[in-house]
Amino acid sequence: MYKNLTKRAALPMLALGLLLSCTPDEEQATPSSALNADATSNAANGAVSQAVKIKKGHYMLIASGSELPADLSSQVKGMKGNLTGIMKNVGIATVTSDDPAFAAQASKIKGVTVVPDLEIQWYNPDDMKVMAFDAEAFGNPPYSGDNDPYFELQWGHDAVDAPEAWNAGHRGKGVRVAVLDGGFDLDHPDLAPNIDMAASRSFVVGEELQYMLNNTFSHGTHTAGTVAAADNGFGVIGVAPEAELILVKVLRDSGSGSFSWMMQGILHAVEMGADVVNMSLGASLPVNGKFLDEDGNVINDTKAVQELLNAISKVTNYATQQGVTLIASAGNAANNGQKDKSLIHIPSGSANVISISATAPVGWAMNPLTANLDNLASYSNYGVTDVDFAAPGGDAAYPGSEIRKIGPVTQYVYVFDLVFSTGNNGWYWSAGTSMASPHAAGVAALIIGANGGDMDPAHVRAALRASADDIGKPGRDPYFGHGRVNAFRGVSALQ
Question: Known catalytic residues?
Answer without folding.
Answer: 181, 219, 434
